[in-house]
Amino acid sequence: MATPLAYTAHYALPAAKVRAALSDEQYWTTRLAEVGGPGAHLDSFSSDGARLKVEMTQAIPAADLPAQITAVRPGDLIIPRAETYDGDSGTFQAHVEGAPAQVHGTVTLSGDENSSTVTVAGTVEVAIPLFGKKIEAAVAEKLTELLAREAEFTGSWVAAH
After folding, report:
1. What SS3 state is found at 116?
2. Could you report the per-residue pLDDT of 34-54, keeping only the tens digit for each?
């Protein structure tokens, strides 16, 4: 059984400006450089105005991981991640290289000309008998921290651009 992942970011910024940031390749490149972890990079970016697809690779250093993860999977975690958007909604998926860990879910942008909200809802699944639930909880916690850093970056990026 999977562990839920939920995060909501609130911005005192118009939804159209947040949407525009998501459609900007430079936004993704800079976001990964600032909050994506060591060696994070943009693998691909495509946008035709309505549909957006972003593929990236992120990393979490072993030193930043809880013991329950490094006991099962030593070393840095390399995490390929993809996000696809159609208008104001999208999906995401990620996995950990060399480990039976998957994350997937939805992203929804809502708001008006004064404020906006991005809502993430998903699940974390780690297929390891006995220890899977503890690892899922640790992964969900780390992902929530990452989503918070990404939201902070997004707010700053949109305000500056």
Report:
1. strand
2. 998 888 999 999 998 779 999
